[in-house]
Every structure is written in C-alpha cells, then in structure tokens.
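Researcher: Sit down with what I've pasted below and flag anything odd:
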Amino acid sequence: MRIEDYPYLYETHLHTSQSSACAKKTGYDMARAAHEAGYAGIIVTDHNWGGNTSVDRSLPWREWTKQFAEGYLDAKRYGDAHDLDVFFGYEAGYRGTEFLIYGVDPEWMAEHPEIHDATVEEQYQLIHAAGGMVIHAHPFREEPYIPEIRLYPEYVDGVEGVNATHSNSRSKGHNKPEFDLRAIAYANEHRLPMTAGSDIHNTKLFGGGVAFRRRLTSVQDYCRAILSGEDYVLTNGETVYDKRGGILGKETV
C-alpha cells in the first residue's frame, strides 16, 4: 500500500462563518484555501440548531434551512468555478454529543422539519430513509461544552476516528491525541467504518481528511465508499492511517 496511490483528498469536517458561530471564514474563503492546499473536495458540515449555529433559531423552518445553507452555497460557488468538489453535510448536536450527517441536502431538510426534534434513534432512522449516513464526530473529546461522553454504536454508521484538531501538532484547540486513539479503538471494537477530518474553522488548514484512489462524484458517492468498504486512507495532515486506524507513515497524503 503506497500513500501516493490515494491522490484524491477530501476534507470531511469543515465549518463556515455563515452558519457556524465558531467559524472565522466564509464558505468561499474556506473552499479557496482547500483548493490551494491541494484538496480534491470538501464537505461543508456546519453546526445545526443543536450546536453552535450562527443562524437565528427563531426563524421559520424553511427560512432557517435556507440561511443555514448559505455557507455551503458560498463554498460551492468557488468550487464550481475552480474544479473543487463541494458537498453538503452538517454537524448535528445533542447536548454536546455531535454527529456528522452526510447524504441529504438543504431541500431535504426543508421538507423534513421532524428532524429538528428527532432523538438520536429517530435521526438515524430519518437519515437512513433518505439514503444518508450518520458518523459519530470526535466521540471521546472532553470539553466543558460536552457534559458527558455518550456512545451510540447502534445508531451510527461509523466513527470519526481521526480528528486533526486532536492530533495535528499545529492545532491550538482540543489537542489531545488520546481522543483519537480511543475513537479508533471504539470503532474497531464495534466494527464500525472510520472517517477522518480536520474539524477546521479557519483557513489555516491542517490537511486532514479521507483520501481515495479515485475522485468522488457526490456526497452520496462518499457515503457508498465509506459503507461499502472501498479502499481509502485517513490522515490528520501529518500521520497517515489505513481505514482501520493503523499507522502507515508520517508523510502527508
């Protein structure tokens, strides 16, 4: 297995200032930075109503979903003009426990207001019915905004085993590599697929993500690749891992 055999790197965990209150840069700026850094694509995963969203929660549902999509659409404007794949996702929050949602789009959200008050189990059922995928984001992160570690192996499709903010040496927040080690062990214990992302909020990119042998065609294609067991590697921008979390090397993809 050679690292250079996986030339298509995708950032799977990225926030924009239009939709995430903790983010510092617009979708357009984030997409441009990713393109210049050599990414094949990005998945915009802004915080939803259960997390640190910057969108007014009192808005009517359809208006809320419209404004929530602005960061993604801004990134896509750059991507469409510069041959960068830009896909939609979001980060769902449940009292500090967070999940990365892939495979649905803003139109689906607008048509399914029941997702707003769904339990973790109901979220899993709704996203699956739509053909999407639920990934437990940074399951072992310890921070004041996370009151306790809650694990739901029966209601997720996979685990974010590598989060660059935990283990990349340039990270200034949440930087505890043991969070990733625990996530990798947990995913393997439950035989759940693993993903990687940077959880990036500004244009000082870490280079984390999932790298494939081929270019993806859509976010649904990303879901299929992860769930089908397709060959890919994970990286935090410094260390490269196989899809079970085994270290392959210290160079970037």
